[in-house]
Amino acid sequence: MVEIKDFMFTPMTLTVAVGTTVTWKFDDSTQHTVTADDNSFASSPMSNGQTFTHTFSAAGTVAYHCSIHPEMTGTITVK
């Protein structure tokens, strides 16, 4: 699970196996998104208490960010 709090993704980097579903939990007072840099997935703007999930079906590295606050970044490595 990746927590979104204080304008950060925690952890910022995560390594998972192919087929893993990752959940992002929104725990901040401001709306955020989870948006892949390659546009392979994107959440709508979400608020405190909501979650977003994505299943990674192929190996590789996916960088992502918050489209509202682009300084918020993270990376998922899929092996």
From TrEMBL:
Is this entry keyworded Metal-binding? yes
A Pfam family cross-referenced in the UniProt record is Copper-bind
Q: Which SUPFAM superfamilies match?
A: Cupredoxins
Query: Transmembrane residues, as ranges?
Result: none
List UniProt keywords, sorted A-Z: Copper, Metal-binding
Quick one: signal sequence residues?
A: none
> InterPro entries of this UniProt entry?
BlueCu_1, Cupredoxin, ET_Amicyanin
Coiled-coil stretches noted in the UniProt entry, renumbered to this chain: none
Blue (type 1) copper domain span: 2-79
This chain belongs to the protein called: Cupredoxin-like protein
Q: Which organism is it from?
A: Kribbella orskensis
